[in-house]
Amino acid sequence: MSKAPEENLACESSEKSDYDLWMKSWWYDTRIRMVVGGLCFIGVMGAYLIAAIEEGEYGILAFIAIGIVVLIPLERLMPRHSMSILRPQLLTDILHIVFTNFLGILPLIFLFPLLEFLRSDTLVEIIQSQPQWLQIVEALFLTEFLIYWGHRITHVVPVLWRFHSVHHSVAYLDWWAGERRHPIDGYFMVLFTGIPLLITGFNLTDLLIVGLFNGLWDMTIHANLGWRLKFMDRIWVTTEYHHWHHSLDKEARDKNYAGALPIMDILFGTYHLPDDRSPGPYGIDTHMPSTYVGQLIQPFKATQYTR
């Protein structure tokens, strides 16, 4: 049901007041944000580097290295939109990559071992008796089915959209911005997809292969890449396809939830890929702070959330 003009004006006024309050906060000062953000970034990256050297776990460092060495040159060679490397809110998105990934891992390390009792020995035996290639294919399709519905639920359920809207607040869409996610949004998706996969009993190696592939491809579909890859339409999710999911275009809203396989959107009626125009601009209709801490706090505020 559409709102009356008076209600819309009231909402806009409330959002403007909310924005003004953020702007007037002492910690919103640009110099303070740059100093605090820079120190935090240096500290966390230093901790990651020490851990990588001692434990041989290079995780986030490898992720950033791939982006810098591969995706940034590609984005400069074939940009979708004209965008500076040092574009607005870049530091915020770098902090999301560093901190949110770290925050997202901690609870899961302790939670998943507690769920081992849910696994069915019979089902585990059936699945792991199959050839490994078949297990990987099955894991991919099951993962995609769960990603589709988990993602769709975050758009439909208002309380979950509050947190998922942080990801959609990106106006400068590139490979860095693809990792802008609220930790609670990340927890929901990991639990929604991880628990069923844990129960079914797929081999950890198979899940790691699928997870690594999905993670790397996720960087690509958010990147500022101008390629169209039309031959992959309806077969595989491309940059063009996923950029429509982030578009402010009302026709594209709540479409293209799939992470890798468009067949999920085709089956459930959310496929959207026009031939006569390109996606953009991107973002949400409501205010989202530009700072990392502000984006962590905003979903808890009593604000009208829309797309």
Could you please describe the fold and organization of this structure?
The protein is an all-alpha fold and 307 residues long. The chain has one domain (17-300). It is built from 12 helices and no strands. The protein has helices at residues 5-24, 30-55, 59-77, 90-111, 121-128, 132-156, 158-168, 183-200, 204-222, 239-246, 263-267, 292-297. α6 (132-156) packs across α7 (158-168), α6 runs antiparallel to α8 and α6 (132-156) packs across α9. The longest helix is centred in the N-terminal third of the chain and has 26 residues, at 30-55. Residues 1-12 and 52-56 have low confidence and may be disordered.
Number of helices: 12
Class derived from helix and strand content: mainly alpha
Distance between the termini: 15 Å
Q: Which stretches of 5+ consecutive residues score pLDDT under 50? A: 1-12, 52-56
How many discrete structural domains?
1
Write down the overall mean pLDDT: 80
* Biggest sheet overview: none
How much of the residues is beta strand, in percent? under 5%
Radius of gyration: 20 Å
Helix and strand pattern: HHHHHHHHHHHH
- Number of β-strand runs: 0
The helical percent reads: 55-70%
Overall geometric form? globular
Give the tags.
single chain, 307 residues, mainly alpha, 12 helices, globular
Write the layout of secondary structure elements.
Blueprint: H1 5-24, H2 30-55, H3 59-77, H4 90-111, H5 121-128, H6 132-156, H7 158-168, H8 183-200, H9 204-222, H10 239-246, H11 263-267, H12 292-297
Helix pairs in contact: 2-4, 4-8, 6-7, 6-8, 6-9
